[in-house]
Amino acid sequence: MNPPVLSPQIHQSSCRQLRCAIIGAGPTALALAAQLQKIGLQPVLYDRGPIAANIAEYPTFMRFFSTRELLELDGFPMTIVEEKPTRQQYLQYLARFVQEKNLRVHTYTTVTSVERQPNGTFLLRLSHRDATTSTAEFDRVIVACGAWETSNTLHCPGAELPKVHTKFKEPHPYIGSKILVVGGRSGAIETALTLHRTGGIDVSLSYRRTEFNGQGVKYWLKPDIENRLARNEIHGYLGTVVERIEWQTVTLRNLQTNELTTIENDFVLCQLGYAPPVEFLRSMGIALDPATNIPSHNPETLESNIPGLYIAGVILAGNISGQIFIENSRLHGERIANHIAQQTQ
């Protein structure tokens, strides 16, 4: 059952004195800040990079597959002609959202630790762009920092070579090269298809499963990649893992037969998803599921096992990618705002 929606008058009169910090400045965090404003709070947002740093790292010419209505925050309209925004259009939209809502965002400010004080408040230690440090104290803290910065990597000989990349921005640097994309979820598939459509790139795909799992693959991508593999337009190595990487080759091992296959290769694009900031969460005292790294939280309020410390966005899913997106995490703020308001009645 969702918590009841309280009137703005009750919200604002009871919450106005609370100090609230949000760690992160992506879509989830920005939508959350707007919800907290509605209950009388003036949250402070901290991000170690720019506004929406994770989205800024998306492929340069990417277009969202979600419609603008599903990506809009707090009813703030996205004034574009197209039905689906590009990466650049969405970044511009988020910048306008910050200005329109007058959000207090401290960019290039890293929260290095969060410590709960004996009086129940939280002490944040901050590292700034100019190498100075400071502290700030808050009554409530919401962690909404995403999981983009820590890429899952390969663990094999040669994985440390500079030819191995974990993030894909655009295909141009790879024209005229032989590329191996490693992974089988939406990100890896989109990367492989983009490289193939660019032309002039020899694309191979290695995936540990023998078929693509519908849970982690957008439905429109599955037939596309399967057709490309069937025609050998993209060389498919399903049911394999990377055994060894060398400067001019990659060796794959078939998980069923243990047979080794060596292919010519110039670059490896490891697209295995991203891990939540496990150590950062643990340092705050947040309990994590040992198998999935899902943080302990109340699904109705999103409060963690630490009273007054909340979690929002993709890190709620731990290691299980493909469950939380902008479309549903933009609504997390309503649950948190309602819970804070109820507590302060």
Folded structure, characterized:
With 345 residues, the protein is an alpha/beta fold. 26% of the residues lie in helices and 22% in strands. The chain is built from 10 helices and 16 strands. Strands 3-2-1-7-16 form a 5-stranded parallel β-sheet, with helices on one face. A 5-stranded parallel β-sheet has the order 8-15-9-10-11, covered by helices on one side. Helix 2 links the parallel strand 1 and strand 2 (44-46). Helix 1 (8-15) crosses helix 10 (332-343), helix 2 packs parallel to helix 10 (332-343) and helix 6 crosses helix 7. The protein is globular and about 65 Å long. It starts with 7 loop residues before the first helix and ends with a helix.
Q: What percentage of amino acids are in beta strands?
A: 15-25%
Helical fraction: 25-40%
Number of β-strand runs: 16
Instruction: Enumerate the strands of the largest sheet in spatial order, edge to edge or round the barrel.
Output: 3-2-1-7-16
**What is the chains' assembly state?**
single chain
Mean pLDDT reading:
91
From the N-terminal CA to the C-terminal CA, the straight-line distance is 20 Å
